[in-house]
């Protein structure tokens, strides 16, 4: 199964595999306030966000991690990220 091609669709939401297309949104929205009790800590530079996405993509390719971006279907605005690791 190629996890890079999985899409989950509901009436209002679309879940797509994480990609560099969402790096700016993730970098801007994943703040210290949001991530207070989460790992990893928010990136200080956009390059760290790209590195994190690259790690997630490697996990998707190996089928050991499912890291998705949740989009509001009507506007295609990103709302959140969700990850599952084996």
Précis, in short:
The model has no long low-confidence stretch (mean pLDDT 88).
Walk me through this protein's architecture.
With 86 residues, the protein is α+β, with helices and mostly antiparallel strands. It has a single domain, classed as Gcn5-related N-acetyltransferase (GNAT) (Aminopeptidase, 3-Layer(aba) Sandwich). It is 28% helix and 28% strand. The protein contains 2 helices and 4 strands, in the order E-E-H-H-E-E. It has a 4-stranded antiparallel beta sheet with strand order 1-2-3-4, covered by helices on one side. The chain starts with 7 loop residues before the first strand and ends with a strand.
Q: Determine the structural class based on helices, strands and strand pairing.
A: alpha+beta
Report the uncertain regions. Answer: none
Mean pLDDT: 88
- Full CATH superfamily name: Gcn5-related N-acetyltransferase (GNAT)
- Total tally of structural domains: 1
Across the major sheet, the strand order is: 1-2-3-4
Molecular shape: globular
């Amino acid at each position: 199964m190629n996890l890079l091609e999985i899409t989950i669709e509901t009436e209002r939401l679309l879940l797509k595999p994480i990609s560099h297309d969402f790096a700016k949104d993730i970098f801007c929205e994943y703040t210290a306030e949001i991530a207070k009790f989460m790992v990893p800590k928010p990136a200080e530079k956009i390059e760290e966000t790209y590195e994190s996405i690259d790690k997630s993509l490697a996990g998707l390719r190996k089928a050991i991690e499912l890291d998705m971006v949740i989009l509001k279907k009507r506007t295609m605005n990103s709302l959140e990220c969700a990850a599952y690791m084996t």
